[in-house]
Amino acid sequence: MIRFFRNYHQWSNKTFIAVLLIAVAISMALTLLAEGLKGFPLTSSSTTVVSQTADFKEKTTATEQETSARIMANGDLLYHDIIYISAKKSDGTYDFHENFEYVKPWLKQADLVIGDFEGTVNKDHYLAGYPLFNAPGEVMDAIKDAGYQVLDLAHNHILDSQIEGVVSTADAIEKAGMTPIGVYTHEPRDKAPIVIKEVNGIKVALLAYSYGFNGIEQSISQEDYNRYLSDLDEDKMKAEIERAEKEADITIIMPQMGVEYQIEPTEEQKKLYHKMIDWGADIIFGGHPHVVEPAETVEKTVIKSLSSTLWGILSQINELKPCRMLKMLSGRNVESSWM
């Protein structure tokens, strides 16, 4: 073999070309082997695998991002007459968009925004701001534009314009592109489906309850009461919360109870909220006191009162903190902060 290479000057052209091609082939083989040992792709099929892996990583990253959601809830949207009077235009219509000018950027940060609309919208009933609340229909367009997706109607003013007001208010919310909770206008309470919103792939169940209805419930039939309204009947709440826990990933409860303007929760609030946690609630957004009450985490998050976001009374009892932001994970971990 050595003598063969020493006599290369005697090679014919064909022999020389053949040897050169063999050398090139060996060189290429060694190069590919070295690259393979370093972990570089060796064939076109390997390139496909790498590409598929990259696609999988991208999809995995996207999925991981979708396992969290930011939920914002705020206190009462309570339209005293001074608010709708100030929103009245020269042509007799109303424009409430200005009410949300400064909170709208906050609301837009969330994936799901929940508000408590305390009052009614009934065009066949006179406008009223206290002690009965009935606002112009234009409020819903402004609320929707601000970023709200869900409005709680389980409160003591939902009967302020009678049963007709319950139906018309829920209808106005739906026509504006939002979802009402806490009343049942399509099916009776005992037959209605649980309201579930899918937020970034997380199923969020929403339930709302009120301690009472200012005595106006005495003027309606028991049949209508059971059909339309959502009270604090513990047997009903327990069954609904347990059902929601089975159907959704996260269960949010919005109970209205407590003492107005009292900055500490009552024992009744504490006991009932803890029962709700035991029944399966993950997050509780309390309301009614119109002031901020302490929050706590007992495996789950309990906010005893969200205060008020919009109303016609200036309060000096404590600082108003209109919104609560939660970062919710599919594993049921929750981070919360006031906005």
What does this structure look like?
Helix content is 35%, strand content 22%. With 339 residues, it is α/β, with parallel strands linked by helices. The chain folds into two domains: 2-62, no CATH class; 70-338, Purple Acid Phosphatase, chain A, domain 2 (4-Layer Sandwich), CATH 3.60.21. Strands 1, 2, 3, 4, 11, 12 and 13 form a seven-stranded mixed β-sheet that branches. The chain has a six-stranded mixed β-sheet with strand order 5-6-7-8-10-9, covered by helices on one side. The longest helix has 25 residues, at 13-37. The N and C termini lie far apart (85 Å). The model is unreliable at 37-60 and 312-324 (pLDDT under 50).
Comma- or semicolon-separated keywords:
339 residues, alpha/beta, Purple Acid Phosphatase, chain A, domain 2, 2 domains, 7-stranded mixed β-sheet, 6-stranded mixed β-sheet, 35% helix, 22% strand
**Oligomer status:** single chain
Share of helical residues: 25-40%
CATH class of the largest domain: Alpha Beta
> Could you report the average pLDDT, rounded to the nearest whole number?
80
In brief, what are we looking at here?
35% of the residues lie in helices and 22% in strands.
